[in-house]
Write a structure and sequence with these properties.
single chain; mainly beta; Immunoglobulin-like; four-stranded mixed beta sheet; 1 helix; 8 strands; globular; binds copper (II) ion
Length: about 140
């Protein structure tokens, strides 16, 4: 019985069309884009880098790299965006803590401006540009 299944599988392999048509190109590998939350003297506290570009499927990973609590609150997003609970992220309090924002269907292409809620007044803000996936 097992032998029969093996033979059937082998025939299945041999029977597959070869070179009938070229396969579609693989999707761009999703990337992890790191944005650090830093407190640099004397420049102040900031997201580093301030601007990043992402494509659908990518993850923007915010990393707490300072001593003060920081978070990610989206302030200005495209009309079609529906961030729901992602609009205000959790407060990160310990060094090395991370917060991942996956660029999924809630993030149509466009410009996403975010701030750190407690430090917005100090200019702690950043931008994610969500691009169309290249074809
Ligand atoms: Cu902050």
């Amino acid at each position: 019985m097992a032998r029969l299944a093996f033979v059937a599988a082998l025939i299945g392999c041999l029977g597959s069309p070869v070179g009938a048509q070229s396969p579609p190109p693989p999707p761009a590998r999703p990337r992890v884009i790191v944005v650090r939350m830093v407190e640099r003297v004397p420049y102040g506290i900031a997201f580093d880098p301030v601007r990043v570009s992402a494509q659908p499927g990518d993850t923007v990973r915010f990393v707490q790299a300072g001593g003060m609590p920081h978070n990610v609150e989206f302030r200005s997003v495209p009309m079609a965006a529906d961030l729901g609970e992602l609009r205000v992220g959790p407060m990160l309090v310990s060094v090395g803590q991370t917060y991942d924002v996956v660029i999924d269907g809630r993030f149509p292409p466009g410009k996403y401006v975010y701030v750190c809620t407690p430090h917005e007044v100090l200019g702690m803000a950043g931008i994610i540009y969500v691009e169309e996936r290249p074809r």
